Amino acid sequence: xxxxxxxxxxxxxxxxxxxxxxxxxxxxxxxxxxxxxxxxxxxxxxxxxxxxxxxxxxxxxxxxxxxxxxxxxxxxxxxxxxxxxxxxxxxxxxxxxxxxxxxxxxxxxxxxxxxxxxxxxxxxxxxxxxxxxxxxxxxx
Length: 140
What we know:
The chain is mostly helical. It is built from 7 helices and 2 strands, in the order H-H-H-H-H-E-E-H-H.
């Protein structure tokens, strides 16, 4: 891999990492990333300087650290590392572009999956009612 493509790759990772942090309402601070990461990682802790290098696109964490970051940030490790996401998702017979989901959307979906069946039904009922109301408003 050439130096130019490595620089592009590390910078793209840094952009995705900063976006994922913002997606869960955190500012991309090296000290914050190091502290939160170290709370979740059972191996040797990282320094704020290591986190800074990740955030500035100077380095990319190894796979074990990447998995911990991804779990914390509610994104897939592949998406965080490579920017990939399944391109289409089937929902009730219709497909939509999953890449259109923001990290905030995926965070919300991750939280949704932790709800009880009854609470999920309530959320679905609310979303359905909002969709009907939006459709009525759109028709004028």
